[in-house]
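ARCHIVE CARD
Drawer: 12
Card no.: 0347
Subject: one protein chain, sequence and derived structure
Cross-reference: see card 0346
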Amino acid sequence: MAKSIWKDDATAKELISRVSQCQSNQSSIMKISQQNYKSSFDSFEFSHYMSLLRENIKFGDFPNNVRDQALTIAIFKSADEGKLNSGFVSGILKQEEAKYLAKPFKDFCLVTGISVNCLKSRLKIRTELAEISISKGFPKTFKSDYDFGHAEKTYPNINSGSFSWVVVKVSARCFHSGANLALEELNYFLGVINHYLVSGGRRQSFGMTDPISKVRKYPLHYLFNPDGSLATELRWYEPYFSQEGPTYHYDQSFKDACKHFRKLHKTILKSNRYRFFKTVFGRLTDALETNDMQKAFLSLWSLLEKLTFTQKDNYTTTINRTLVLFKDKFIVNQDLELLRQKRNIAIHSGEQFEQSEEYAYMLYSYIRHYIFFILKIMLKVRLDDDIKSLLDLPITSSKIQEYEDALDKQLKQVYLLKELIKFS
C-alpha cells in the first residue's frame, strides 16, 4: 500500500470535508477563486482550513510557496471535478510533488552583503551546498539589474560602504528554493564565524543595544541568474536587521575565523550531521543578529533545547543534560535555573524582564561550548536516542561508580543465567 501523503488521514478527511462546505454560490459576498478554475469558496473559513491542511501534508523539502501552490491546485481541481475528498486531493498532491521533483536543477546567485569592511581581496568559501564569494566591490555581473537605491530608501541611515558584497551560488529547482537554500547556507557560515569571533562573557549597554553578532547580513537580498539577469522581481528582506549595529574591520581574526570555518565544516561533514548543525548555526545567526535582547535570549534558549534534544521534555531535563559538560555544576545549575525563570517570565506573562542583555550573553556563553561538545559526541554516537541516553547518565563520580557497580552486578547475573541454562 502506498504511503499516505497526510500526516494524519482523519484530520485531512475532516478538513477537506469542511473545505467542501465552503464552496460558494452565486449569492456569496466574499469569494476566493483561482484563474483557470470554475469553483470558488467563501473566504471566511476557507483560508483557515487551508492553512491547517497545508501543515498536514508530508511533502519533502519543498519551499512554502510551492507547497501552497500545489495545495491550491489540488483543492480547486478536485472541486471542479466534483471529487473534493481526501483521496482525490491526495492523488493530485502526489502528482504535483512528482512534477516538482522532476524539474532540473538550475544555478542561482543570491546577492547581498555582510558587515565587514576594508577587505583586501576576494574570499571564497565552500559549504556543502553553496559557494560563497565575498568582495569589497560590487560584482560587475549583477550591476545592471541591481537596485542600489532601494535599501537606502528603506533604511535611510544605513551606510552601505561599511558592508562587503556577497554572492551565494546554489543549485535548486526553482527560485523560491534557491533563495531559501542560499540564505540557509549563508546563515550557517555566519553562525560559525560569529561563534568564533564572539567570546561570550558579560555585556551591559547603555542606550540602544547593539546586536551580539560581530558580522551580520545586509538587510536586502536579490536573486539572480548566473548571467546577471534577475531570477525574480521578488526581494528578500532581513527580518532581524538592526540599523544600530557594529561593522567589523577585516583583520587577522576574521581570516582565522574563515580558517576555523573550513576546519569545523570538514568535522561536521564527518559526523554526518550537516543538516543538524546547519540548523544550529542558522538559529545562532538569527539570535545574534537582533538588537532585541529578549528575543535573542528566547531564541538562544530554544537553541539550547535543540542541542540537548529536549524540545518535548521539561526544563529539568534541559538543565541536567547541559550540566554534563561543565565542572562547577553547582554554579552552572544556579545560572541555568535563573535563566529558566527569566524564560518563563517572558513566555508566560509576556512581560519584558530587566537585564535581558546580560542573560542573553550568559546563555550564549554556555551554548558556545556545548556546540563543540555535541559535535564530539556525534562523531562517536550516531542515533539520537543513544545520544539522549548518554546525556542522561550520572554526572558525578560517586553516582557513576554506583551506576558501574549496578551494571557489573547485572552482567554477572546474566552470565550466571546463561551458564545455568546451558547446563540444565
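Annotation on reverse: The chain is about 55% helix and 10% strand. The radius of gyration is 26 Å.
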